[in-house]
Amino acid sequence: MMELKIKIALKFFLPVILIILVLTPAVADTDDLPVEQAVLTMAPQVPPPIDRDHPAKVIVSVDTTEQIGRLADGVEYVFWTFGGSVPGPFIRVRKGDLVEFHLNNRPDSKMPHNIDLHAVTGPGGGATSSFTAPGHTTQFSFTALNPGLYVYHCATAPVGMHIANGMYGLILVEPEGGYPEVDREFYIMQSEFYTKGDFGDEGLRPFDMEEALAENPDYVVFNGSVGALQGDNSIHAEVGETVRLYVGNGGPNLVSSFHVIGEIFDTVYVEGGSLVNHNVQSTLVPAGGSAIVDFKLEAPGDLHLVDHSIFRAFNKGALGTISVGGAADKVVYSGQQYEGIYLPEGQAEQVVSNVPASPVATSQEERMLFGQRVYERNCMACHQSQGQGLPGAFPPLAESDYLLDDTDRAIDVLLDGLAGEITVNGVTYNGVMPATRLTDEEVANVLTYVLNSWGNEGGVIEPADVAGHRAAN
Ligand code: HEC
Ligand SMILES: [Cu+2]
């Protein structure tokens, strides 16, 4: 009897209880927050400052993509991204905001992705709630409890690889009342790329796990590629203006010694937090960390952003430019005041030491070895590692009838380049092979290597043969 009563009661009240549960918001007092869509910007752009004096519910929606893009001139890479760019979009919220985050993984992705925002207080920074398979979408919410500039990144296994391929960006949580006003704000994010081959080696370059483990990148860049902040992409400001850089470091491995050549940071929000320092030359930006730097522009000209671990700047890409317009103040900076010849006592002339010549092969074995090196640096990007070429683009050198029918002609191909229609093993190619700038020795070495690799039995080319062709032209 008792049991029956409970059953009836349940039957009657359960739907009512369920309806009440569904209608009750998960976070009790966020119910009446005003709702807004986040303004997202791509680097170097920063969303406008927040002028609210109260929290809001901010909706952020970001797609994850896997796409080929430019890493440097002539160099391409398969980037994994937030929002289709590296770094991902800049997100700007206010302390106390409830952020409703939607992660959408494009249907043409091959990998699942998720997001760990360092601004989140909770397991995985959101990663445990945002694992998203290709063609799926997920949602979670968090309250931005702490103000500061925070990195976000993908944290799907293998985590290092998702970050190395470009999955990071910045989220700014403004303190109540915001940061002091400045004239211009920019979004700068440093990161490294690990590729098969060396810096500048052309073609589509795959990720190199061994280099990543050794923390020895070929590229260290600002905003996702070499030159993303140079030339036409330089950022601009005027003398008299105040500039704020929101600087992040996606890593995955290196710590940045962030510096602007020709400026002093008037103010640094150390590590993107609330500690304020003044009059700073270089500030450390940890992997997975940030800094906010402010400075006033007193002199016109080009300022160069660098990682002051300086080989990264001049040899691996970590260079950017702020071109500053306006009138010069000769007291702030005079420009050059004198230039002349300086001869220390007893020295009549200045000597420049000679550049060492490329090594000279003394045996067939060495010719093959040196030739292989020339091939890997100068030919492999197009003709591929086994000389197999790339269908529709680059003809094969392995068992190429065009090559083996007339090995002498190959010397001219290297010296002069080749354009126009040719037929290799019955397939027509109509591309352009640029003339190489190799020495006689190098041409002989690389051709000898090509003629005796991958099933080719094509004999030997001597430097004298190359010299003969050069003279005949
Ligand atoms: C930027 C890409 C590129 C690079 C780098 C390059 N080649 Fe080529 N190569 C081509 C293209 C494209 C053709 C076909 C040109 C045409 O269609 O007329 C070609 C044609 C050739 C041919 C004749 C066709 C054949 O398959 O036998 C030879 C031989 C050759 N290249 C050798 C080399 C060697 C050796 C190097 C390195 C020193 C080199 N190439 C570097 C793009 C390249
Ligand atoms: Cu990912």
UniProtKB/TrEMBL annotation:
The keyword Oxidoreductase applies. The keyword Oxidoreductase applies. Its EC number is 1.7.2.1. Keywords: Copper, Heme, Iron, Metal-binding, Oxidoreductase, Repeat. It catalyses: nitric oxide + Fe(III)-[cytochrome c] + H2O = Fe(II)-[cytochrome c] + nitrite + 2 H(+). Residues 366-454 form the Cytochrome c domain. Cu cation binds at residues 113, 118, 153-154, 162, 167, 308. Its cofactor is Cu(+); Cu(2+). Binds 1 Cu(+) ion. It is an enzyme of class 1 (oxidoreductase). One of its GO terms (molecular function) is electron transfer activity. Pfam families: Cu-oxidase_3, Cytochrom_C. Belongs to the multicopper oxidase family. NCBIfam families: Cu_nitrite_red. Homotrimer. This is Copper-containing nitrite reductase. The lineage of its organism: Bacteria, Pseudomonadati, Pseudomonadota, Gammaproteobacteria, Chromatiales.
